[in-house]
Design goal:
By secondary structure, the protein is α/β, with parallel strands linked by helices. It has ten helices and ten strands.
Length: 236
């Protein structure tokens, strides 16, 4: 389980997170919704060690993550698919996937996991020797998720996976997130498409200007009038 307690983060005098607390139970999908600038990406970047916290605690299976190097956090079983996909454009699909396994030494198992990613994303197998920069936006998002899976994470963090994608592609991405979770990977999802995120989430939190203002199950937040008005439109 991931447990965040009273986490404070500031960027150059701007308070990005103001003492947030949340839990991501093993085997669940947890989503964090909120407007741009609410602190969602900051939360993920602090968990992965890319951003330093002022104070608070991030516990992963009762071990403190704050202050640990990024490679330690990845080795502990946490991976992130970043906002904007961030694939390596001049490398092939297969090379991008293998970079996701850079801390691993088990070559036979890495080869098996490449096949696992191809089963999840058949389009990537069709394009395995294609340069990542020539893929469509949806294919690049699939590659970013597949690359993160190559570290064999216990917790997969996804930062805005539907951003800039056509509605049909978004449906595909969310179906695959559900399948990844069914195969035993815990998911922490940041998403501006609140409707899709809440439908798939076991647990959900609303983040507003660095504070968690509402929490509950995905279904509870879908039915919450405040959430409907702010993030879903009056009719949800």
């Amino acid at each position: 389980m991931l447990k965040i307690e009273n986490l404070h983060v500031a960027y150059g005098g701007i308070q990005a997170l103001r003492g947030i607390s949340l839990e991501v139970p093993d085997g669940k999908i947890v989503t964090l919704i909120g407007a741009n600038g609410a602190g969602k990406s900051t939360t993920l970047r602090t968990i992965t060690g890319l951003v330093k916290a002022q104070s608070g605690s991030i516990l992963w299976n009762d071990g403190e993550l704050l202050g640990k190097p990024i490679d330690h956090i990845v080795s502990a079983g946490i991976a992130m698919s970043p906002e904007g996909r961030r694939v390596f454009p001049d490398m092939t699909v297969l090379e991008n996937l293998k970079i996701g396994a850079y801390l691993r030494k088990d070559k036979a198992e890495i080869a098996k996991d490449v096949q696992w990613v191809y089963e999840l994303f058949p389009r990537l197998e069709e394009r395995s020797w294609q340069l990542a920069g020539t893929l469509s936006g949806g294919e690049q998002q699939m590659l970013a998720v597949g690359r993160a899976l190559m570290s064999r994470p216990k917790l997969m963090m996804l930062d805005e996976p539907s951003l800039g994608l056509a509605p049909l592609v978004v449906q595909d991405i969310f179906s695959i997130i559900g399948e990844i979770n069914r195969q035993g990977v815990t998911v922490l999802l940041i998403e501006q498409n609140a409707n899709m995120a809440l439908k798939i989430a076991d647990q959900a939190y609303v983040l507003e200007t660095g504070n968690i203002t509402i929490s509950g199950t995905g279904a509870e937040l879908l039915a919450d009038e405040r959430v409907k008005e702010a993030y879903l439109g009056k009719n949800g």
